[in-house]
Input
Amino acid sequence: YPNSGGKPERISGPKVHLTPGGPFGNFIQAVRSRNVGELNADILKGHYSSALCHLCNISYRLGKQVPFNKKSQSLGENKQVVDAYNNCRENLKAVGVDLKEATYQLGRSLNFDPKTEKFIGDEQANRLRSEALREPWRI
Output
């Protein structure tokens, strides 16, 4: 604990109420009570937060293994992404990882339409947006 002599330091900030079971438990509690006011977060913000995770997972699942021993041109021109990749490579070298043999999973680039919540021109990615439901369940 920095600057606290080894003791936890109290940090002031907004008052937060945590419910048992974390965000999932809070959601179940609000569904059971049918009281949207019990939710810890706005529904739309929760949807966007979880959707971003799902989009990243779909990209990862459709990606491919690529060698770590050379700079990937697939990362594009995004300076933050390229810098993070190069930093990771340097850290792996520093701890003795042989990059000649190492690979990593490079997620596939995807175009997503936030209004329709579908991938543009990519049926393989669209199939991963949700699983087939058991009968008689339908959306």
